[in-house]
User: Fold this.
Amino acid sequence: VQLQASGGGLVQPGGSLRLSCAPSGFTLDDYAIGWLRQAPGKEREGVSCIDNSDGSTYYADSVKGRFTISRDNAKNTVYLQMDSLKPEDTAVYYCATPGPGYGCYTLPSEYDFWGQGTQVTVSS
Assistant:
């Protein structure tokens, strides 16, 4: 199970970015997909997740109302739309999955398969 995250970059505070997560060699239908991030000197934390069964979505309190997770099964891709970005959103963002048939989890340790990460920098 391999995932590819993309879409990071440098953006000014208040700006937007859209991250994409695409699998390699499998379809996302049976997989919950989470976005997690790690800032310099901090532990990895969960940001958002979309469930595989009913499409339920979950967000960390720090991003609620600003980030939106979605999945496009036709394109086999999960997106994280990030609006009203703040300097504290600066981190490497990863997409990950706990594996086929499992739902969303809060703890990064519950995710078994990870993409390579994409850097998001929010700075003026």
Notes: The chain has a mean pLDDT of 94. The two ends are 37 Å apart (CA to CA). The first strand starts at residue 2 and ends at 6. Residues 1 and 25 are 7 Å apart (CA to CA).
